[in-house]
Structure formats: C-alpha cells, structure tokens
Amino acid sequence: MHKIIKSILSLVIIFFISCMPVSHVIVGETKASIDPSNVKIYLDYPVEYEKIALIDAGSNFAFKDPVILFTWQSKMDKVIERLKIEAAKLGANGVLIMNTDNKIYQSSSIDDKGNAQFSSHTEKFGKAIAIYVIE
Hints:
With 135 residues, the protein is an alpha+beta fold. The protein has helices at residues 2-18, 72-89; strands spanning 22-26, 40-42, 49-58, 94-110, 116-133. The N and C termini lie far apart (63 Å). The relative contact order is 0.25.
C-alpha cells in the first residue's frame, strides 16, 4: 500500500514540477517589457497591429504561481492573467484571444486488494496572439 502511495505522490510531484502553465513562440519583433495591467484583451483584430508571439496558457497549478482554482470562471481569469503577463514581458500591449478549451483529466488506480479509486481535475487553456497595437 505504501509503495502505491509513494508512486502516486512521486508522479504527482513530477507532473506539477514539469508543468509550465505558459509558453510562447516568437513570430515577430519583441519590444521593451510593459506592465501587464496595460495589456488589453481583444476578441477581434484591431485596425493596425504587429504580431509578436503565439502564447499558450493554462490554469493548472504551478509552483511559481501557486493557486488552486475551483470554478471555470476563476480558471479562465487565471488564463487571461497569465496570457497578459507573458505578453507584457514580450512588449505586447494587446492579446488577441484565438481559442479557449476546457479539459477534464481522469485517473484511476486499483490497490492490491482490488479497491478502485477514481479522481479527476479540470483545467482551462487559452491560445492567443501577443500583439502590439499601433494607435
């Protein structure tokens, strides 16, 4: 029984350490970093802009940003926050939301006595383009 618990805990720790809730791919020219509060969210393309990067963000737990979220709205808020922070680091003053997705992860385990345990957790993901809007 203890071996199973240790194995599960090890896998969970590896999973959480290896998860990166935000990533980006540079597709344009980066600019000087700005404050994330100055990054605006767009659902449609603005009139004049430059693409800086493609950004992916998730609501999953991260040690650099530890928070446990329960509602879909709080998870979406965390995705938006992470998108804005990453965009601001790249000098983008806008984030054009391309897609959001809900994912439900389910797992099961059976101990040596045949008892089954099931668990699940949910996450929200967002894909966006970091842009510099020319005003």
